[in-house]
Amino acid sequence: MLQSGGYFAFLAVIAFIGGSYAAFPTSIKVCSRNDPDLSRCITESVNDLRPRLASGKISDEFRIPPLEPLALSTVNMDRGAEFKATFSELLVSGPSKFKIDNLKVNIEKLIFDFNIFLPKLSFKGKYDLKIKLLLLNIAGVGDLTGIIENNHARVKLLCEKYTKDGKEYMRVKKLLVRIQIESGRFDMKDLFRGDPVLSQAGNQFINENSRLFLDELTPGLERSLSETFKATSNEIMQQATFDEIFPA
């Protein structure tokens, strides 16, 4: 489930990158900042790029972290003593099936705002949790697998220009992600110290109350994704000047 969010934030970066490979492979469609329909141009560029995103091989010379599987950093949940959890070593399958729409671009203020939809994500990783869900205390450490479906996100990139070596560049100042996950199913091994009966009961309880569990996870996931992919996008964008990214 965590992975879904991971995917979303990465796509936030991708949607912007769709217009920002100008200094790199010639196979990437470049969008002029004076294009009267810049949103459409960037969206088309992202769609053209999608087949290369799964492997991360944009060209022989230029690579980015692959989307399949998508590796996520640690996600923490912490809402006091009754709700603590850490999810790590996360790998997500399915991110390359993303769709973006309703892209809004303010090139003067460097604001990029768009929706992302992903039908299905499967994931695996590690978990360490101690939570109280309704009246049940659930604890365990072990392997995690699961599926989340019908994932939506609203992403907003707030960028700014800066000068380096006499040239003008662009970077992400803030990356905001708001996630909505319709449904999810989880399998956590070794709940209740591996007691098979209690472990099965704990997983069943979590899945029967997955809406509550997902709602608790979302804020920490959004924070983790925003931080991770802000850094990723800035690493990529520093390779080209603003004029190379969005030529006149």
UniProtKB/TrEMBL annotation:
Family statement drawn from the similarity comment of this UniProt entry: Belongs to the TO family.
GO biological process: circadian rhythm
Signal peptide residues on this chain, from the entry's feature table: 1-22
UniProt-listed PANTHER family: CIRCADIAN CLOCK-CONTROLLED PROTEIN-LIKE PROTEIN, PROTEIN TAKEOUT-LIKE PROTEIN
Source superkingdom: Eukaryota
Record has Signal as a keyword: yes
Pfam families in UniProt: JHBP (PF06585)
The UniProt record lists the keyword tRNA processing: no
GO cellular component: extracellular space
Keyword annotations of the record: Biological rhythms, Signal
Protein name: Hemolymph juvenile hormone binding protein
Record InterPro entries: Haemolymph_juvenile_hormone-bd, To_sf
